[in-house]
Amino acid sequence: MKLKIEAIATLTPGIRKFTLAPVDGSPLPHAGAGSHVVLEIPGPSRIWKNAYSITSAADAPAYEIMVRRVEKSRGGSAWLHDHAKLGDVLEVYPPQNLFAPQRLAKRHLLLSAGIGITPFLSYVRLAGLAYEFHHCCKPEDEAAFRALLPSGPQMTLHTSRHTLNLEALLKSQPLGTHLSVCGPESFMDMVLATAAHAGWPAAKVHKESFGGATGGEPFVAHMKRSGVTVTVGREESLLDAMEAAGLAPPCLCRGGACGECKLTVLEGVPDHHDHYLSEIEHAANDAVMTCVSRAKTPELVLDF
Amino acid sequence: MKLSLKPQETYRDDYTFSNSDEAILRFPFPFPEDGYMYSVNMEPHVRGGATPVYDKVFDVDEHYIGDMADRAITLDQDPLRCQVLPHMETAEWDTLELLMESLANDYPEHFSLTKNGDKWHWINRPLEIDQTFTFGRKETLPYDPFEYITRQMQGDFSLQDQRDNNLYMDGGMVTSQADWSLNFDVGMSFHEWHGPVPLAHQAGVFDRALQYLLRLQYGKPVRRLNWTMTANPRLDTSPENYPLWGPEKAAITPENVGHRMCLRVELQTLHRLPRSNAILFSIRGYLIRLEELVKVKKWAVRMHRVIRDLHPQIAEYKGLPRYRQYVVDYFAPFDDGRTLNSGIAAEQDSI
Fold first, then answer.
1. Domains of chain A by range and CATH?
2. Which of A11, A93, B88, B197 has the most Cβ atoms closer than 10 angstroms to its Cβ?
3. Please, how many CA atoms are within 13 Å of residue A111, restricted to the half-sphere of its CB?
4. From A32, A254, A275, residue closest to B274, measured CB to CB
């Protein structure tokens, strides 16, 4: 869908907030707590696809996202910081949710650092959510983050990771608490390792992930019987590329589950992403599910 | 094509239910090939396709008024047919919105929805309902939101919560089921509620289906067809009421099998809900008497082959053994040995 940049706010020197509204004023798909959107960002040599958590309410007429400028970035975040202006229209994919709050949790422990605050801004808006929230940021960003966060005894802002005694915090939580963490990889790794050490079961620990990406490095697939060669781009599936070339390969679920699109691999090594083939079949590398799987070698030769 | 609704039919006692010629031709016949085996037969639920019942997000047909009257009777006798666990309240509102928007969009002559912020106005003309309410405030509706809207939509529904890399059946409206009980299954995980199904577990069908559904995306619903057979066009073939319909199964004879026996097909669609991240599972059932089904030549021939060659464990699970031979014998005269095209299309325009 086409959304236009309706407002831009600078929250900190490194973080900007964007408001994205429908070009034609039509209602947006709802974005439940924990949802993200993927933006297509025009670059000089290619289009960047970046995922951002939605910080506005599920029924809001526009999406709000926060973008941190990635240091030394030449990609999407640099464009959004340096070039994006009011009225620019971007292609935005409908929201998906891979970090929804656990509805059965009696209590939530939310831990974030820096830009990792974003998914939890939608969590704390949920009515009746019982939570304890710790956010870590640089001292110079304290005022900006404090303005975004709720106030009260359940909320603590740390301007140094050292004021957060993770081990004590994780060891003192009541049973039934779910831990959710979002932030830089190093922060999440530290929290997850501390939680594991403190005996937290994996099912009670949740880490932000945008995941679900079907893309990857481009590769070439030769169809031996039909004599057609396709180049599979970074953001399309092998199945998409075959269909775009006018072929009609078998397919059904388009999600790696049904087995319908299986093709025999004659040469090359597939990169398996499906749930249909067994581990042994994956290891044999003689079949590929075209809807989700890709290639580890620059080329595949398929029996089609 | 404009949808016209029949006056109220009955699905119990005198069983006045019947299909018009139009309803027969649009029946979702479930067998694309001459044989049947379990598979992950799911595909994107996009408009159009092999059968006209794929044309709308939620299909409404000529039996709407009778279906809703039968649901009301069943709920009156057994309120536990509709249950939603407390943590699914957001999913209830998601369901209400999805169903109201879909019905108003697909059948504007019958349903309309007007939103003014959270003040909503819903009109259901066939059931003569005119309701204003506040979205998110359940005290402004005569029932809880999930029960309210599923009393107005054909087919059964269940609500799946997603957690621990699994799906849990944490709510539902189930009054037209093929011998399963929401009251028994509520709260179960995906593999638990599918426990009784034979063969498919060993084939890994449920492992793969679960992985597929965990990744179900908002705005990209999926569908499959499932089937069984029912003696008499009865919607409520529940375990709770087996004493009512068990004897009807036993009363099937070679003489009455064509009139009484029904093929029962479920169009199952799954929808990711936006606010709750739950999954709405719609089980939209269609019934057709065998004597109606044979009016489509291709289906009569294929039914003979599928039922004749059905794996004994699947026949057992679907409750067919008692009358399976009568069904095979009923269809046998239609099967002249011809080769049939793949696919479920009727391949005829009239009856």
1. 2-96 (2.40.30.10), 107-207 (3.40.50.80), 219-302 (3.10.20.30)
2. B88
3. 26
4. A32
